[in-house]
Amino acid sequence: MTRHLLIAGAAVAALSLAACGQKTETKGAATPAEQAATPDANPAATIPTPSNEAAAPDFVSKAAASDMFEIEAAKIAQKRAKNADVKKFAADMIAAHTKTTADLKKAIADAGQAQTLTLPAALPSDLQDKLNDLNKADNFDIAYMDNQVDAHQAALDVMQRYAQDGDVAQIRTFAAATAPMVQQHHDQAKSIRDALK
């Protein structure tokens, strides 16, 4: 028994000596005991609020506006585009984004949120401005495809963030299922744009 106490005592002494030799810099940080005594100083004590992008109302608004923008831009492209690939891409965008809007509405209904989560009736001003600029573009085909690369990248970012951190399971499932299609559209738009240049 005495031998075990001596070994334990030697181990404690060795650890204490080793700890004394180390420099610890706190740079004004509170020790764990100080943090426990003052909960406001403990960052872990505060509950993080979800970012807006993980909140269903923000996601629904952005996703629906993105679909609306894609459809309206594609309608302009069907009238103004000269390149056959650009015209076909525009037709595909109308079909695909009409479907994703329907799928988003279904996800909202399945979540029991149809009364609280509504799709916007009009484009936000920034997207409306982009549509107006597109309508006036001189080299329309390149302008439209540049626009589509950017728009699909923005939509992909929104889908991926919500698929990872979203607060409503059914809508999160929708985002996860839609993201690969948006990625495919982005890649296709980039390929068509690069071929035009």
Fold-level CATH name: Ferritin
Structural class: mainly alpha
Largest sheet: none
Which architecture would the CATH scheme give at its second level? Up-down Bundle
Assembly classification: single chain
CATH superfamily: Ferritin, core subunit, four-helix bundle
Number of continuous helical runs: 7
Taken in chain order, the helices and strands follow as HHHHHHH
* DSSP E strands, number: 0
Radius of gyration: 28 Å
Please give the share of residues in helix.
over 70%
Could you give the distance between the termini?
A: 85 Å
Overall tally of domains? 1
CATH C-level class is Mainly Alpha
Strand content: under 5%
Mean pLDDT: 81
Q: Tell me the overall shape.
A: elongated
**Weakly predicted, low-confidence segments:** 1-51
Task: Describe the structure in your own words.
The relative contact order is 0.13. Helix 3 runs antiparallel to helix 4. The protein has one domain: Ferritin, core subunit, four-helix bundle (Ferritin), CATH 1.20.1260.10. The N terminus is likely disordered. The longest helix is centred in the C-terminal third of the chain and has 28 residues. With 197 residues, it is an all-alpha fold. It contains seven helices and no strands.
Summary?
With 197 residues, the chain is mainly alpha-helical. It has 7 helices and no strands.
Task: Map the helices and strands.
Layout: H1 2-21, H2 32-37, H3 56-80, H4 84-110, H5 125-136, H6 140-165, H7 169-196
Helix pairs in contact: 3-4, 3-5, 3-6, 4-7, 5-6, 6-7
